[in-house]
Design goal:
seven-stranded mixed sheet, alpha/beta, three-stranded antiparallel sheet
Length: 348
């Protein structure tokens, strides 16, 4: 696998691209009359000091999680401010986005539609069209290759550098790459450790595509693909001294199953083995990535998935309860599209 050497962080371009979605987001907020609701007192409490999330959701009849994510984006672009768990309009929104304002610019705003993409579904979701997440959205060869190409914009390089820095890595011989898609991370790790054999687990269609797409890849004979649906299948082998999970555990982190999932991994590993997590976290390093993180979370809710971030505290606590220790953490540095945290832990 050819891993490019990068001259500039992709996060700067990615942040600019996400800004293009903002007109779609603001127009959806206008369409459900969110700014109008925030401009009026709460009838239930007669309070003029802002609205709680529950009050907003009740009056608008919108889904709570998506509404919260929407308000978070609006806060990042300074149309809403939050004080003591209540939401308020900023002067910018009061003047130009409330329909009763003599200076409202709603018609001008509607001339800016935003880029086509996942935010096209924001308004229907807010109006009650319940999204259903499609875990098979990555089944096609095109999506697999697109994801691999996306990882080459800094994510792959960062993960390889981090893993190489772990003292245990050089002696690892058996890798479990869970939800590893077509195995692009595995091939990168194999290039750095000639004694390593990789076992990549993913959905049946993904594994089928991987065998076709990667058959001419150097080290193909060192990779074994295993068809597995993590929702229904329990067995992903054992005897691993290196387990790698990238951008997969988000759902477990919010549904109370993260400790159980990590315990399964712990049992499949040899003592002294390393577990490495590569996931978007809740920490950003500049205003641009902060807004992108908020937009990604809203986008995730629109797609019907509960979250797209795992905090350091949540992951560290779950790993500790599963039996891991000796943590190594690398926080986001802006070198990748999203604020990504790498965390390693050891089975003692």
């Amino acid at each position: 696998m050819n891993i490019p050497k990068l001259q500039a962080p992709y996060s700067k371009l990615n942040n600019l691209l996400y800004i293009s979605y903002l007109p779609k987001v603001i127009n959806a907020a206008v369409a459900i009359k969110l700014f109008d609701v925030l401009s009026t007192p709460d009838e239930a409490t007669s309070s003029t000091k802002g609205r709680t999330l529950e009050s907003i959701v009740k009056e608008l009849d919108t889904p709570l999680a998506v509404t919260r994510a929407l308000l978070h984006v609006l806060e990042k672009i300074e149309l809403v401010r939050i004080t003591e768990d209540t939401y308020h309009l900023t002067p910018l929104a009061e003047d130009y986005l409330v329909s009763s304002s003599e200076a409202n610019q709603v018609k001008a705003l509607q001339e800016f539609s935003g880029s086509n993409g996942p935010f096209d579904q924001l308004l229907p979701v807010l109006q009650g069209d319940t999204p259903e997440f499609n875990q098979h959205m990555w089944n096609s060869k095109e999506s697999a290759l697109s994801m691999e190409q996306g990882m080459k914009a800094g994510g792959l390089q960062g993960a390889v550098k981090f893993v190489k820095s772990l003292p245990q890595f050089a002696s690892c011989t058996k890798l479990c790459d869970l939800a590893g898609n077509i195995g692009y991370y595995s091939y990168a790790f194999l290039q750095e450790n000639k004694h390593l054999q990789a076992h990549v687990y993913d959905l049946p269609e993904v594994c089928k595509n991987a065998k076709e797409l990667k058959q001419d890849e150097p080290d193909f004979d060192r990779v074994t693909y295993h068809a597995l649906d993590m929702k229904t299948d329990e067995d992903f082998g054992d005897g691993y001294d290196f387990v790698y999970v990238s951008h997969y555990m988000y759902g477990y982190a919010v549904n109370g199953e993260l400790v159980d999932f990590l315990t399964r991994i712990y049992k499949a590993m040899k003592p002294g083995g390393i577990f490495v997590s590569n996931h978007v976290c809740d920490i950003s390093i500049n205003p641009g990535s902060d807004l992108t993180l908020a937009l990604v979370e809203l986008q995730t809710q629109i797609l019907g998935y509960p979250t797209h971030q795992i905090s350091e505290d949540v992951l560290r606590d779950a790993l500790t309860k599963a039996g891991f220790s000796d943590f190594t953490v690398q926080m986001p540095d802006g070198s990748y599209a999203y604020p990504t945290m790498l965390m390693a832990a050891v089975k003692i």
